[in-house]
Amino acid sequence: MQTRKKKTRNIKIALTVLIFLMVGAVIALFSGYRNLFTDTKDLVSAPAQEEASISLDTIHQTATKDGQKQWSLDAEKVRYMQEKDQAILEEISVTFYPEPEKAEPIRLTADQGVLHIDTKDIDVMGNVVVENSSYRLETENLRYEHAVRAFKTTSPVHIQGLDFSLAADGMSFDMETRRTEFTGNVKGTIRENLSL
Question: Confidence band (pLDDT; 50, 70, 90) for 124?
Fold first, then answer.
């Protein structure tokens, strides 16, 4: 009986230590989560064997400001590169919450991404889709600049809305002002029932 209690106690201690180690690793991963990375070429050229400080199978992270949720990120795989202060993400999904709170959330999905821990900027690449109930934007590369709450790309974009379709060589979208700018070879179709 005494041996059984001792084994149970040892298992409890081991589990407690393991939980503290896991919590410590997660805290270490996101402790510097103020800013992120800027050059997506580093991600594309980064060898798959490169040593990661921490690797996780799934991740969920939320950025807030003054108690207001700004975005929530989910990824199937993440590798934290401490020397670059960035997280390399696979199968990424981010939901952005524009201000005011009444504005509809914007959902972004992509094959890969880089979260720059110091700036909170996010670079995504591969099958990039940005959408809400009114439109769907498709491109291959996109950057979210957290300080100005804006999306930018110099890659060709195609955007489909309920009453319009546009294509361009690049674009930027400011979530606060709700202003979109298309650049280079802008072509589009506007349907008859669009009201301006």
Answer: very high
